[in-house]
Design goal:
Blueprint lengths: L1 E2 L6 H16 L9 E2 L9 H8 L2 E2 L6 E2 L14 E3 L18 H16 L9 H7 L9 E2 H11 L32 E6 L4 H11 L2 E5 L7 E3 L1 E2 L10 E9 L6 E5 L11 E5 L11 E5 L1
Parallel strand pairs: 4-7, 10-13
Antiparallel strand pairs: 1-3, 1-6, 2-9, 5-11, 7-14, 8-11, 8-14, 11-12, 12-13
Main location: other
Catalytic activity: The recombinant human enzyme hydrolyzes synthetic endopeptidase substrates including Z-Phe-Arg-NHMec and Z-Arg-Arg-NHMec
GO cellular component, one term: lysosome
Length: about 290
């Protein structure tokens, strides 16, 4: 999917309060249900929010039905698992007004894949992917699968974020010599797990954090709890990274790292109900191999 991820005016805030009442009341309340309210995006009209932050697009490159994959072994599934507990997930970042969510999610997966392999956990350059992934549109949007295809085809070595820092806008691609140290990938897989979230759980345990593309229109107002409604499959517009899951409570959920800063959601994370392909979370899933 192509993921793309002002002055204060009272009218957008008034509209958002009306929207919050709807989001919080239209379905029967459960203790675990998501809560919607005032956050850092409340000053934006929904159309503005979508234009700035929801810029992930669907890829024309193929995805594979999970049943044709032989690389996902049968593993016993714990009730709870989070790669953060293994200290192989970098801190939540903030894409600001750059629609580069597609790059943040892909780079996050590469960072974790190397850390799982035993390398030091390091923040890698999202700006390098935004500037250099020629089959995408930088801060105007992109496809996670296209970005992975580019990384795999060119064998580009991602440098550290400190060497090529994020500037929240498109720039000219900065090239490094072949001898410059960096982090390339050996491959990736793209899956459609839309009716096989148990298989998706096995992929998470086997391969590491998963790149996914979701419908995040209602996430503009998300404060916490488990997202179960107000989004759909087939409307992919935002790329994120699944780091884990929790099946302990009455409503099992995916643990989802976003790129809207740590003040958004639950310390920068969302919780999305497992099962039912909520927000299309299982439609376009990618794993990275290093």
């Amino acid at each position: 999917s192509l993921a793309r991820c002002s002055e204060w005016e009272p009218w957008p805030l008034f509209e958002s309060l009306s929207r919050h009442r709807y989001l919080n009341s239209v379905f029967p309340r459960e203790n675990s249900s998501a809560i919607y309210g005032i956050n850092q995006f409340s000053y934006l009209f929904p159309e503005e929010f979508k234009a700035i932050y929801l810029r992930s697009k669907s890829s024309r490159l193929p995805r594979y039905r999970a049943e044709v994959q032989t690389s996902i072994p049968n593993v016993s599934l714990p009730l709870r698992f989070d790669w953060r507990d293994k200290r192989v997930v970098t801190q939540v970042r903030n894409q600001q007004t750059c629609g580069g969510c597609w790059a943040f999610s892909v780079v996050g997966a590469v960072e974790s894949a190397y850390a799982i392999k035993g390398e030091p956990l390091e923040a890698l350059s999202v700006q390098q992917v935004i500037d250099c992934s020629y089959n995408n549109y930088g801060c105007s949007g992109g496809s996670t699968v296209s970005a992975l295809h580019w990384l795999n085809k060119t064998q580009v070595k991602l440098v550290r974020d400190s060497e090529y820092p994020f500037k929240a806008q498109n720039g000219l691609c900065h090239y490094f010599s072949d001898s410059h140290p960096g982090f390339s990938i050996k491959g990736y897989s793209a899956y459609d797990f839309s009716d096989q979230e148990d298989e998706m759980t096995k992929a998470l345990l086997t391969f590491g954090p998963l790149v996914v593309v979701v419908d995040a229109v209602s996430w503009q107002d998300y404060l916490g709890g488990i997202i179960q409604h107000h989004c759909s499959s087939g409307e992919a517009n935002h790329a994120v990274l699944i780091t884990g899951f929790d099946k302990i409570g009455s409503t099992p959920y995916w643990i989802v790292r976003n790129s809207w800063g740590s003040s958004w959601g639950v310390d920068g994370y969302a919780r999305v109900k497992m099962g039912g392909n909520i927000c299309g979370i299982a439609d376009s899933v990618s794993a990275v191999f290093v």
